[in-house]
Inverse folding.
């Protein structure tokens, strides 16, 4: 009888309709990995922030059809990964998805995995770079509900893959597809943009920024002659965030008379930070600054090279 292996993929998630925006935001800001103050203050802060930000966030989601596409995108990744894992093997792989801040929640997916009855579980974050605010909080949530529902199956965790060839090459292929169509690539600057974090999180020992820079260093080995800069987007709140900011680098590119190729280096699927922030808001900023050409590279999504690499990573992390 073949071994049954559950692969649990997880990401941040996003609201599936406009009414879900407020509870999604509350779940996000109530996470102690995001707001680090104790209760009841964290609950109160999460209530206040989610209430204030809901109208703004709803406007953002209206720009992309009233919902986040992240679950649909992740489902494509899940289906292709499951297919690749089950090619010419004796084991039976089944892939599951949970999202940290919106449906499907870990507590519900634990039930599904338990019903499947696996011999082992492999937890696969869809964050190439590790952070306590992404990979770790998802793992904590999964373990909480696995314990709560007595899912006592041996498991392993894939922590990160920031400089793995399968991820970096998949991004490089997407850049190359754009560069090959340009008459003068030297007129462009690659803005390698990742989601930012508060500086205090990094100062406390979070490896995220180092791993983003690992990704970018490995990526630029494929484009050694290209002008480039690593930058960070999506800053919110009054805290000091890591930099330089993507907005500032757009302004600097304009002053340097450079066109822009925007490369998301920490996201593996499309969602509000790419479809609204990069495609709409930063494009408008670039236009206002006088940038003649603004190109945005897609995320790796379910490209064969990326998913095949995830499949190999899963096999390597078998117990």
């Amino acid at each position: 009888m073949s071994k049954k292996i559950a692969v649990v993929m997880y990401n941040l998630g996003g609201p599936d309709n406009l009414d879900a925006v407020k509870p999604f935001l509350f779940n996000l800001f109530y996470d102690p990995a995001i707001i680090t103050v104790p209760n009841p203050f964290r609950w109160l802060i999460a209530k206040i922030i989610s209430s204030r930000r809901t109208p703004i966030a709803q406007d953002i989601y209206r720009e992309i059809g009233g919902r986040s596409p992240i679950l649909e995108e992740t489902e494509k990744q899940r289906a292709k990964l499951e297919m690749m894992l089950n090619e010419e093997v004796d084991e039976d792989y089944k892939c599951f998805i949970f999202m940290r801040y919106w449906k499907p929640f870990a507590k519900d997916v634990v039930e599904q995995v338990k019903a499947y009855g696996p011999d082992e579980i492999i937890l696969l974050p869809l964050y190439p770079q590790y952070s306590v605010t992404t990979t770790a909080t998802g793992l904590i949530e999964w373990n909480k509900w696995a314990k709560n529902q007595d899912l006592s199956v041996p498991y392993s965790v894939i922590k990160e893959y920031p400089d793995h060839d399968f991820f970096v090459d998949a991004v490089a292929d997407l850049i190359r597809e754009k560069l090959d169509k340009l008459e003068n690539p030297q007129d462009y600057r690659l803005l390698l943009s990742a989601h930012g974090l508060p500086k205090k999180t990094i100062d406390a020992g979070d490896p995220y920024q180092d791993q983003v820079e690992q990704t970018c260093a490995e990526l630029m080995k494929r484009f050694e002659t290209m002008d480039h800069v690593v930058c960070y987007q999506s800053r919110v709140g009054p805290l000091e965030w890591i930099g330089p900011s993507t907005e500032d680098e757009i302004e600097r590119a304009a002053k340097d008379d450079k066109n822009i190729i925007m490369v998301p280096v920490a996201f593996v699927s499309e969602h509000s930070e790419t479809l609204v922030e990069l495609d709409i808001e930063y494009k408008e900023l670039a236009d206002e600054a006088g940038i003649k050409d603004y190109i945005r590279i897609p995320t790796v999504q379910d490209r064969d090279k990326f998913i095949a690499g995830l499949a190999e990573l899963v096999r390597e992390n078998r117990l």
Summary: Strands lie at 4-11, 92-99, 120-125, 155-157, 188-195, 227-233, 259-264, 294-296. The mean pLDDT is 97. Residues 152 and 307 are 28 Å apart (CA to CA).
